[in-house]
Structure formats: structure tokens, C-alpha cells
Amino acid sequence: GACRRDPIGMCLMALDGTLQRVNQTLCDMLGYAQDELVGMENLAITHPDDRARDITLTREALRGLHDRTLIEKRLQHKQGHWVWVEYNGCVVRDDQQQPAYMMAHVQDITQRRANELRLQRDATVLTRISEAIVITGADGRITEWSQGAQRMLGYTSSELLGHTPRRLIAQADGQSRIDEIRRVVADQGQWSGEIEHAPGVA
Fold first, then answer.
1. Displacement of CA 8 from its chain's centroid (Å)
2. CA–CA separation, 52 and 55 (whole Å)
3. Segments of 77-112 assigned E as strands
4. How far apart are the first and last CA of the chain?
5. What is the spatial distance between Cα 125 and Cα 43, in angstroms, rounded to a whole number?
6. Which of 33, 43, 170, 201 is the most exposed place for a label (fewest CB within 10 A)?
7. Is 86 buried (19+), middle (13-18) or exposed (0-12) by CB count in 10 A?
8. What are the backbone dihedrals phi and psi of residue 32, each rounded to the nearest 5 degrees, phi first?
9. For residues 91 and 89, what is the distance between their CA atoms, to the nearest angstrom?
10. Is residue 14 within 8 Å of residue 21, measured between CB atoms?
């Protein structure tokens, strides 16, 4: 019953890495029928850049150097593209504590990896760009603050993240100017112009 329909992919492997049993979730994840996936070698569908680490960790696990292998790696879909997965594997031992077979839980993390990469790229852009860029969330509070904005206006990220842009506007015309900026952004997708930040407001 370990390899029927489960919320994450599961497989049982021989000690040489040959897939012996797989559940339907893993099949769906990689685009194969069960009878296609069974008999394949784990390394054959593992990304070339991930294979050396896979081999090392498997050998260490078989020698009993660690109980569990938890890594992120890429498996090849039947259509050719790579699926990022969290691979949680272990060696199952017999009564004499000798390796009998290997078992792994496999979870698709492709979307999570894509989101992390996007956030890393956004952070890099915000660090390197010279212009002042302020990004707000749906509630109007600042979520991102570029290095250019910090240099131009003198506030650090920790001083402004979670606050509204009104802290950057002189009190006399603060709300009306913010309303104007929001209308332009809603209409054109961006706003550029000059603002007078409120001196001494932390």
C-alpha cells in the first residue's frame, strides 16, 4: 500500500537505483505510465549536474553514514523538460541491518523554485538600479525599497517597509499627492515625478 495514490510522489528502488515500484503521483509528475517508469534508473532521469551529488549521497547512505537524504534536484519529464523536486530518500535495511532497498518521497517544487528565482532577480535589480523605486502591496504599504530610493531619500528599508508612501510626502499635500499617484499608476501602470519627502519623519 505504500505506493498507491498519495499526495506526493513515492518510489521503491533497488540498490542500484532501478525503479521497482512507483505511485501514480510520481507518474503524473513526470508524464510516464507506471510500466514505463518502472525499470528506469534514477540517475537516467536525473539532471547531469545533479548526478555526482546523487551518487555520493547514495553511497554514503548505503554505508550507513546518514539515515536520510533530503535534497532538491531536477528530474526529466517525458516531454524533455526538467522538474524541480524535493527528494527525501532513505535506505531500508533487513533484520541483519543490511541494505535491502531504497525508498523516496518526491515532491514537485518547480513553482516554488521559479518564485524564489524571481524574488532573487527582483532583489538584484532593486540593489543595482540607480533610480528610486518604491513597490507597494495591495494594501498600499511598501513591500520593496530600492538602493536608489535609499540613496535619494535617505531612508533605509527597515525604516519604511510596512509603511505607506505618505511617510515620503510633505504633510501639506501628502494624501492628495498619493491619491494622484495612485490614479496615474492605475491608468498607466507607472508614475514618475518629483516629491518632497517630509524631513525628520522616521
1. 17
2. 5
3. 82-93, 99-108
4. 60
5. 36
6. 33
7. middle
8. -110, 155
9. 7
10. no
Q: How many CB atoms lie within 10 A of CB 29?
A: 20
pLDDT value at residue 184:
77
Cell of 79: 516531454
H or E element that contains 112? helix 110-128
Q: Tell me the mean pLDDT per 10 residues along the chain, length 202.
A: 64 96 96 96 95 94 90 95 94 94 94 77 60 67 68 68 65 63 73 59 42
Q: One-letter amino acid identity for 162? A: G
Give the predicted TM-score (pTM) of the model: 0.59
3-state secondary structure of 32: coil
- Residue 10's contacts (CB-CB under 8 Å, 6 or more residues apart) are 2, 3, 22, 23, 25, 26, 103, 104, 105, 106
Closest CA to 196 of 178, 162, 144: 178
Coil, strand, or helix at residue 84? strand
Residue 153: C-alpha distances to residues 74, 87, 202 (Å) = 43, 46, 11
Pair type for strands 68-76 and 82-93: antiparallel
Distance, CA of 15 to CA of 99 (rounded, Å): 8
